[in-house]
Design goal:
Layout (H helix, E strand, L loop, with lengths): L11 H57 L2 H12 L6 E5 L5 E6 L2 E3 L9 E12 L4 E12 H50 L20 H47 L5 H15 L5 E11 L5 E15 L2 E14 L14 E4 L4 E9 L2 E10 L7 H85 L5 H32 L7 E4 H18 L3 E6 L6 E4 L1 H17 L5 E7 L4 E7 L6 H6 L9 H7 L5 H11 L3 E7 L3 E8 L2 E2 L21 E5 L3 H11 L5 E5 L2 H11 L3 E4 L8 H9 L6 E5 L4 H10 L3 E4 L4 H11 L2
Helix pairs in contact: 1-2, 1-3, 4-5, 4-6, 5-6, 6-7, 6-13, 7-12, 8-9, 9-12, 14-15
Amino acid sequence: MKKNKISINHSIGFTLLRGVFSIYIIVAIVVTLTHMTIEYFNVKQMIKNDLVLYQSTYEQPLSDALWDLDEDRINTIIDGVIKLPSITSVQIFDTNNNIIAQRTSDVHLASNEIIAVDFLIDHYFDIEYRREDENSLVGVGVFYSDRDVILSKLSTGFTLIIINSIIKTLALWGIFLWLVRPMLIKPLEEFSHGVEKLNVDDLDDFKLKIDSPKRNELHVLADSFNQMAFRLNGSLQEIKASAFALNHANNYLEQLLLSAQEMMQVNDKEALFKQYVQFLHKGVDTLQSSQLTITYLNRITKSANEFTHVNYQLSAEVIKGHSLLHFIKCSEETTDQLPVKYQALAAKAFMVRNEMSSELVVPLMSKNQLLGVVTLGLLKETPLSLADHSYIETLTQLLVLIFTQLDNQQYLEFQVKKRTLELERSYQEIEQKASELERVSNYKSQFLANMSHEIRTPMNGIFGSLQILQNSVDNEESHEIILTGLSSCKSLLTILNDILDFSKIEAGKVEFEANSFDLKELLNNLYNEFKPIAVENSITLALNFDDHFHQYWLGDLTRVKQVLINIISNALKFTHQGSVNINISGSQEVVIKVIDTGIGMSEYALNSIFDRFEQADKSTTRKYGGTGLGVNIALNLAKMMGGNIEVQSKLGEGSCFVISLPLTRTNKQKILKEKALLATPQLKNITILLAEDTAINRTIFNKLMAPTSANILMAKNGAECIELFKTHHPKVIFMDIQMPVMDGVEACKIIRASSNIPIVAITANVMSEDVELYKEIGFDRVLSKPVQLQELYEACTKYIV
């Protein structure tokens, strides 16, 4: 009680009173100051009126004294004036504004002294001497009054005003305190004491009362508190009832937890239902049944289901105070749909009463789908309480949850097993098809290699013969025919190389080197190579470099050149008049635009230009020739280097191919130079050994090497090559691969076992894997058939000179 006692200084009433009187005091001070200000101005006006009255009294004596120039009488008059209560100083001036006499509070001042007084009020008046015919100005008088006079007159009034205000304030304070205590402070204390007595055990008899003759806000507060206590008492009663029900349901919950633990360990639907019925009897003591029928769902597919119906005979056995059910299966069948009597069941368990027996029917519902039905044949009619219904409903929900999980698991296991079998069959089919594809691919690669070999071998004779004739014929017409033949051979060789490159790209066997090269020099060489074709067709071929173009790059020079050759030759092929412009730009990546004014492409042709074996249309193939692989190969090579080729074209107006290659910038000065034309090497008294089984190829080689004056030894197979090598000790060996008796591979291995002599393979087998194999075996270099004279001379220069 004491700790809840509130000091009067901190009570609501006292705080309210203090606030009210603080405001009252402020208002009283403002009013008092206003009243005093008004009184001040009234006193000041009264003094002014007194000075005017004094003027009327002393003006005539002063005029007479001044007229007579009687100084003693003037001073006597001034002495009388200065004694008046409202006057503090007096001055008399003559007509020339000279002081005749002055006085301050009974002090005589000389005429030349200055009156030093803080005057608030001064009254000037003219002193005239009155005669019968006229008035004459004889001087000027001044009466002064200061602050002290005003304050002396106000002091008494001010004191009375302040005393009045203090008395009223104290009186009102006492009255308010006397009224607030019984009306507010005392009722609040009673309210506090009543609340302190509040106890949850005594809410029935609790009622808070306020001792006040009239109803006010405190009565409303007390009534509200009483209503709150009443509602709180009702809530406590509900809580007690709920606690009793909760305690009663706790037994069911323990049974449900035990049921959940054991039911979740079951992996069979039929066993799950047995567990459910067992715990149903444990939770509902009054339940006694002799028969059990369960119907449950088995999913086969998403759209196909089947239902299993099982009938049991039940018998109970009491073991250690607990009832244990025994299940004797009577029948079991499977159907593709529910029995008619189960197709319109309610969502909750219900009793079915017949004349002879009763049944408890428990449907298993999940999202409005009936998963099964449990029907218990009862020995006697069993009344079920609300708690029993709640237990059955909860246990059934648990059964539905576990049943759904088990059903999903079994369904997934069935589907996984089914899918596994399907995947195994598919995998076997895929393996079989992959094996067939690999075999077909090998057949294709072998076919391409064989075809390349069979075509290149006779081409070697044709190409070699033309090269020999090129240097021996002086007739211009014959020379042009030879150049045409060489051009045709190169075109055929390009087609062969395109087919082989396409095969490599398709098999993913293209490898890229990373060497520094001069892109400007490469483009200038290509320009010089294509310039004669452009001149022959009256086409302007232009090479344009951007100001910010970077010259040195790191990449595969051969593949970059192959891309450019395919795109530029394509532009020249389809341009009859106008120009082909090659614009080079890019400082961070290589960007080359090949713009022609050729026949252009339709929208359909534009969509298929990069497809293999495709040209603008079938007539294009007939008119211009080609395999339709060049652009496709260029695009694939560009993409393998991380770049791309884009094309814009309009039929009849020309095309624009944009090649972008994100190569690495380099400033290295050591770059791969394009092969310059070599002069015919002089190999007099130098022995060169050739192993070649074809007579034509031996003849061509001999003729090609004739200008070098070298001593050429000929072998028809690997065995002869080894014998000639041992007896003549040549400087270099040029060796075919496919030869009778002993092929070039075997011969190379035998020679390599005892010597490091340079061995150059001359072969029509130019597949990348073949070339790598030959180098691994011991060949220093591989020349492809048909052999080009420049490459042959370069090999001689490298390994002999």
